[in-house]
Amino acid sequence: MKIYQVSDCHLQVGNTEANANLVCALQHIEGNGDGAILLLTGDLVCNPSVDVYEHFREIIETHVSNSEIYAIAGNHDDSQMMKAVFSGSRIMVKKTVKLANGCRLIFVDSSQTPLTNMPLGSGRVSNKDLSLLKKWSRKTPSIVVVHHPVVDVGTEWFTQIGIENKAAVVRAIHHHTLSVISGHAHSFFKVLVKEGVNQVVCPATCYGFDHANPCYERNEEIGIMYYDIERVGETFDVQESIMPINR
């Protein structure tokens, strides 16, 4: 089972570079011709509007032929608007999907507004989604797909804009979960969530964040992720690869 992950595209009207970067990433995926699942893990647009989501949908459907494309919302997205615009297209918004090899994708919406006073860019997972995560991650070995990382990664300014109730999210993730994959950090990370469960963070397609700098600074390091999930008897092996984008 092969999966591509594209994250943090931040499409907006007039930003030709963000558009071009996304197209380049999609052409790379399409060029491999393996029909893999495509995950779009949030912050698809910068300022949500019907027009910009329609433009995003058009780019996706024009440049890749993948039949299984799943999207989740990020803190820059409007989840209801996104779902409405993507309805009837090849981009699906789901809560969970059972894959052909027997493992499951669990989609966790971290785009909810925090209940406490947190910086812009932070998120929260609803109690309903926490219950679904707990339920489904115990049923089958799963890959948890979420926009915000569920544990702290990166420099200090970035850790302040995470998930408000991240401890509850981590508790809901069963120990036989195969991997947690996210975006938001605009850089690659692989860190431990709990014993046996890793968090993999996808680079952005729009621009990178320099996490070596204590202050907010962008860089040009952009890319996507590729996962190969192999079933070996009753167990699964997940291998991830970073695919840099060079325009």
Automatic annotation (TrEMBL):
The lineage of its organism: Bacteria, Pseudomonadati, Pseudomonadota, Gammaproteobacteria, Vibrionales. This is Calcineurin-like phosphoesterase domain-containing protein. Residues 1-187 form the Calcineurin-like phosphoesterase domain. It holds the Pfam family Metallophos. InterPro entries: Calcineurin-like_PHP (IPR004843), CNP_phosphodiesterase-III (IPR050884), Metallo-depent_PP-like (IPR029052). GO terms for molecular function: hydrolase activity; metal ion binding. Keywords: Hydrolase, Iron, Metal-binding. The keyword Hydrolase applies. Belongs to the cyclic nucleotide phosphodiesterase class-III family. It comes from Photobacterium profundum 3TCK.
